[in-house]
Recover the amino acids of this structure.
């Protein structure tokens, strides 16, 4: 009805004139007061509502309007007095109860705010917006169980209420109850195929359950309305990757990274996907850019060094790691990777030194322990390798490769086989290659003895 502030001003002027002509017309006064509220003229609205109450002292709607205006003006004591009077006259009025709830929201009294809003919801079951406001309030204050009950009540009474279903599904996802959440999300998209957020959340649930083939159609439906949603593009790229649809995986991840050109995490995810799909040149280029633009993050140095190592460019990989140590001195993963480079070049002493450096930083660092054992194996030092593997086994007692190797070393060093190790392999990984080899030892060890 009102096109702009000038129209509102003109209408206020007209109503002011009419109320002067008819000072006892309650309808005119109420319209004038509410128009002042819409205009932000709260003090003027207070004066008008006082005139209404002077004419009709028990007018509950006018009390509610007056109390809310006074609260917005910061006149909390006066507002509380007026609203308490309204509550005495109409204790079951939803409008009064909602107004009291808003008053205590302004006062910071969350408990009383919730109490009044709950009373209002119970007093007006045909007004779902009140219970929805109550549920949202409980959720904001982390009373998730209470919010869940309110949303469930709403959905039972008003199954077509999309907002309540969506919020309920969100809480169920938060609790890990994905199948229940998906039931509500599917109902939403059945009623409203254009509910793109519901499609996105449905795809998210399926993605978390690793049902990638089912997640993709949900993501594609969501994309019709959420074309450039970063979360959607990331999960869609990962889904295509798991389905071995490499081209579409890369296209989706490239779009995701393009939306966040300055995001280290987005660009790193793109580089990782290039690496996983065998595009090592693109991966190397991506990690190299990150090394230049984000030297504060060690991950890109490590990824780039790993790519160069796998290409056989060991010298360049070492240079990248030295740059890593310049920005991140003593980085344990960097020293472990440098040990790997030395080992790949056959520099066993240097490799051993680097692996031992990692153990000086953290004696329980498993890759460092494994590296030490690997060096001793390559240099034919059986007893030292056995001792190193014992330390690995102390940290990872069910490592079947270590258990099998220690059994082989028993034979190499001419000491009795510990058959318990082989039995442990058959228990931990009964269908594995290691278990078949362990079974062979178990069958033949008594004869050898």
């Amino acid at each position: 009805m009102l096109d702009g502030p000038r129209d509102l001003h003109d209408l206020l002027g007209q109503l002011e004139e009419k109320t002067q002509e008819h000072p006892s017309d309650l309808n005119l006064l109420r319209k004038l007061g509410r128009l002042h509220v819409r205009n932000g003229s709260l003090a003027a609205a207070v004066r008008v509502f006082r005139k209404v109450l002077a004419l009709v002292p028990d007018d509950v709607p006018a009390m509610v309007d007056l109390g809310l205006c006074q609260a917005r003006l910061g006149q909390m004591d006066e507002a509380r007095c007026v609203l308490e009077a309204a509550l005495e006259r109409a204790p079951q009025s939803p409008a009064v109860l909602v107004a009291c709830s808003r008053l205590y929201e302004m006062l910071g009294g969350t408990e009383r705010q919730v109490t009044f809003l709950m009373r209002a919801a119970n007093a007006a079951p045909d007004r779902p917006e009140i219970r929805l406001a109550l549920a949202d309030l409980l959720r904001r204050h982390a009373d998730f169980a209470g919010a869940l009950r309110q949303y469930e009540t709403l959905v039972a009474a008003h199954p077509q209420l999309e907002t309540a279903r969506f919020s309920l599904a969100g809480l169920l996802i938060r609790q890990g109850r994905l199948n229940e959440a998906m039931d509500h999300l599917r109902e939403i998209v059945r009623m409203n195929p254009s509910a793109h957020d519901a499609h996105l959340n449905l795809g998210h649930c399926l993605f978390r359950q690793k049902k990638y083939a089912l997640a993709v159609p949900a993501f594609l439906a969501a994309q019709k309305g959420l074309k450039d949603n970063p979360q959607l593009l990331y999960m869609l790229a990962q889904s295509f990757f798991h389905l071995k649809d490499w081209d579409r995986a890369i296209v989706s991840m490239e779009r995701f990274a393009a939306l966040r050109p300055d995001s280290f995490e987005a660009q790193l995810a793109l580089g990782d996907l290039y690496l996983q799909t065998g595009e090592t040149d693109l991966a190397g280029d991506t990690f190299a850019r990150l090394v230049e633009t984000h030297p504060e993050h060690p991950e890109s140095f490590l990824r780039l060094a790993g790519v160069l190592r796998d290409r056989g460019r060991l010298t360049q990989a070492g240079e990248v790691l030295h740059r890593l140590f310049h920005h991140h001195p003593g980085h344990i993963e960097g020293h472990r990777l440098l040990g790997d480079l030395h080992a790949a070049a056959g520099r066993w002493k240097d490799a051993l030194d680097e692996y031992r450096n990692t153990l000086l930083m953290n004696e329980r660092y498993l890759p460092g322990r494994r590296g030490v054992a690997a060096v001793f194996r390559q240099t034919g030092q059986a007893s030292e390798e056995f001792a190193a593997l014992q330390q690995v086994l102390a940290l990872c007692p069910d490592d079947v490769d270590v258990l099998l190797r220690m059994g082989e070393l028993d034979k190499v060093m001419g000491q009795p086989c510990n058959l318990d190790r082989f039995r442990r392999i058959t228990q931990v990984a009964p269908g594995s290659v290691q278990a078949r080899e362990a079974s062979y030892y178990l069958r033949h060890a008594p004869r050898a003895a």
Notes: Residues 128 and 154 are 7 Å apart (CA to CA).
